[in-house]
Write a structure and sequence with these properties.
With about 375 residues, the chain is mainly alpha-helical. It has a single domain, classed as Rossmann fold, CATH 3.40.50. It is about 50% helix and about 5% strand. A 3-stranded parallel beta sheet has the order 1-2-3, sandwiched between helices. The chain has a two-stranded parallel sheet with strand order 4-7. A two-stranded parallel ribbon has the order 5-6.
Length: about 375
């Protein structure tokens, strides 16, 4: 498959529009002024984050909660918050499909950083039923989007619940720039999304295959009494300068992750991602994570040569179901699925109601609310 000779965006990706020289539309339209505008927004967010951190000091039993997945970003984030900012950090892991490499990273980092760590392991039966239904009823953007934007709200909601119940003022997540999609979050989850919106996906409620007990696993602020103070949920890497390669090196140098291999997202990501990539490669002809890494390459935040090689390797082992790609077959067996079951049969949906988007669009910095918790 052809890809952009500058950022590696696959030709099949929406909006790629490679020209005769092999350069994609996004690279052709990328301007130095865009970089200046992005840097200006980043500085506004950094100032807001600094203020939020200072306000959080001593405001609860911990200054912040950090969702710890075992990837390089969440590990390094805890290091920065504790050792550079002097915060009292509570690490929190939702134990769903975390792989061996990620668990090794978690154990090493928690011991090295000496932070307190809560692990929540919910029902595997619920997740098996959930993943199976979603894979057989994918929305138009494919498996990664379908699963990730139901799965992520579950562990994000778990973190919000712990922070709210314990009176922790900040949840600080290790999302890199470009994660998640901007329509869900840029720097901070919209305040109204946390304080007023039930996060239960309407398609799950409508399908009739999930009980009220199942659906209550999703975040719903209406379960709390009036006047409850909800934490802010912020992605610091959207505010700080971010360099993927530098973080991969730092976590190894600091002894937080044992090797460069373990620091790579290829090895530390959730094993079910291999099935999601497999489904999207089959249905769309390109890796669903390619646009994310292409954006980082375009902005100078990821190594083009590394991903030029690694991207081809990942696609090959995924489609052949070998090496790490063996997780494709393992998860298909766990979910009782065949290739023919991996179906796209639903339109895309927006994540938040209109009133959240209206409020969010008017907020600052960079569309993120600076309001204090309410």
């Amino acid at each position: 498959m052809k890809s952009c000779r500058t950022c590696l965006l696959p030709e099949a990706a929406p909006g790629a529009d490679l020209d005769a020289t092999g350069v994609c539309r996004l690279c052709r339209e990328h301007r130095p002024t865009d970089i200046a505008r992005t840097e200006s927004a980043r500085r506004l967010r950094e100032a807001d984050l600094t203020q939020a951190i200072e306000k959080a000091r001593g405001a609860g039993p911990y200054d912040c909660l950090v969702p710890l997945s075992g990837g390089k970003d969440s590990v390094y984030l805890i290091h920065k918050l504790k050792n550079e900012h002097g915060l009292r950090v509570l690490a929190h892991t939702t134990d769903i499909d975390i792989g061996e490499v990620a668990w090794a990273n978690i154990r090493l980092a928690v011991d090295k950083l000496d932070v307190e760590h809560l692990v929540y392991r919910p029902s595997m039966d619920f997740y098996r039923r959930l993943f199976r239904w979603l894979m057989m009823n994918q929305e138009a953007r494919g498996a990664v989007h379908t699963i990730s934007y139901v799965y992520a709200p579950l562990f994000e909601g778990n973190a919000l619940k712990v922070a709210t119940d314990m009176g922790i003022p900040l949840v600080l997540a290790g999302y890199s720039p470009g994660q998640p999609l901007a329509e869900r979050m840029e720097y901070e989850f919209p305040r109204l999304a946390i304080s007023r919106v039930d996060w239960t996906p309407p398609e799950l409620r409508a399908c009739g295959e999930f009980s009220d007990q199942d659906l209550q696993r999703f975040w719903d602020p209406k379960r709390y009494p009036a006047g409850t103070i909800f934490p802010r949920y912020i992605a610091p890497y959207h505010a700080w300068k971010y360099d993927q390669d530098e973080i991969m090196k730092k976590v190894v140098q600091l002894g937080l992750i044992s090797s460069t291999k373990n620091a790579s997202p290829v090895f530390s990501n959730y094993p079910i991602n291999w099935l999601l990539m497999y489904s999207d490669l089959k249905n769309f002809g390109f890796n669903p994570y390619a646009p994310e890494f292409s954006a980082l390459i375009r902005e100078g935040k990821a190594n083009r040569q590394y991903w030029k090689v690694m991207g081809k390797i990942v696609d090959f082992i995924t489609l052949k179901k070998i090496y790490l790609g063996r997780h494709v077959a393992r998860h298909m067996e766990w979910l009782g699925l065949r290739d023919d079951d991996l179906k796209i049969n639903r339109p895309s949906r927006r994540d938040w109601p209109d009133f959240v988007y209206d409020d969010w669009a008017a907020a600052a910095p960079g569309r993120a609310s600076t309001a204090l918790p309410t």
